[in-house]
Amino acid sequence: MNSHTTVNGEVRVRMAPSPTGFLHIGGARTALFNWLFAKHHHGKFILRIDDTDIERSTDESMHEIYEAMQWLGLDWDEGGEKGGPYGPYLQSERKEVYDRYVGELLASNHAYHCYCTSEELEEIRTEAREAKSTRSYDGRCKELSSEVIEKYIADGRKPTVRIKMPETSILVDDLILGSRNIDPATLEDEVIVRSNGMPNYNLTSIIDDVEMNITHVIRGTEHLNNTPKQIAIANALGLSLPQFAHIPLVLDDSGRKLSKRHHGDLVAVNRYREQGYLPEAMLNFVARLGWSYDDKQEIFSLEDLIDKFDLARVGKSGSVFDIKKLEWLNSHYINQLDVSRRTDAVIPYWQAEGLIDSIEDREKLEKIVEAVGERLNTLKDIVPQTSYFFSDDFEFDPKATKKWWGSSDEKKQKTYEILTNLSQILEDTPDFGLDTIESLVWKYTDENDIKRVAAMQSMRIALTGLSFGPSLFDIVVLLGKDEVLKRLQKAIVSLS
Ligand code: GLU
Q: What's the number of domains the chain is made of?
């Protein structure tokens, strides 16, 4: 790390979301990398809100972003609702700061007013396209005479402010991607203040990074083209630069950039929260999008990540969003929870589905969770896997009945007999303990030369509608004698 950019040696990084929608996977990844970098270097993590786009920014999105960050456990030291010594942290409240810098740029002749109308700009763009120019604006307002300016003003034209791009190349030194020299011919005089007086992202971003003493700007490569523009603005103002690090894009499995536009809520962090992903799993998953430790280790605790995270191990190429891997990590973290914590975690999903309202029989709920064992990929999986414990209003899965109850009359008759006999045996036993039931069922199958698996599966379908799930005898005990007999009876009737 280059120490001349740190303030008293302290690392200061930021995440700067635009509150124009939910926090997405890419945003969470940017947040996490910044957060880890700050923690690793005992620095500060700042949450700045880039809300100068007043038409598209909403309070609702801002709070959704806060909530998603809090759910992930990515707490911030300054900014957001917290405030801090460099506030305000909402760009919409910092206009005075930007106006001051714009005044300086205009006074030093590093920026100028552009009076072109949108129609004129469209024409200039078309000409530039036809001439195959790398710039879509030709800088024609740079040298306007005072008479022309007066006329434009008298005509009621509202100017934008453009920054003059330098004649010499711009060096972008990136901690991940290395150094590049950008040819100024590829850069046009960027609009830094719109005609409605609102400053644009490239201006506000670099001004705030400098004003807030940000030492490292870590953000997605989608901003790579903005960096030379921001450097040009800072250079024109004589400001010293933060270091830049651009992290590779997150791609889908066909190599397309993961985006809200193309992937909808599949990229929304909240969606995973609702589906029953644990924040630990999300963080572990997101950490590995573009960063790896040794190509082998997949499971990282947060402490481990803080300890090992390093920009040097962030790759240069895009990383693929693999939902299967996220599921696998999630099931790993769910299995790490002891039964009591796992029960706490799944209760809201049962409640949301109306399977339980109050927690009357906590012990039973824990036993159900214990019986389900390591079968949950998401917390929400608890619903389809256990709903039969709470209600007998289920269909027998037709594939399962075809396979285990049989489709021929003869086979069905056999199943009918087995279930009728088992029902009788279970009715007759005064002891409904697991061991007793198990030995009674095996005694019956073995004495009558019936395959154990056939009897078990037939009974499982009768009791749950499904051909898979927890151990059959756990289910029998948890349902209790009355319920088991009632359900067996229902199956027997449907077979007759
Ligand atoms: N508001 C920008 C975004 O959400 C921030 C980019 C940056 O980190 O500079 O993409």
A: 1
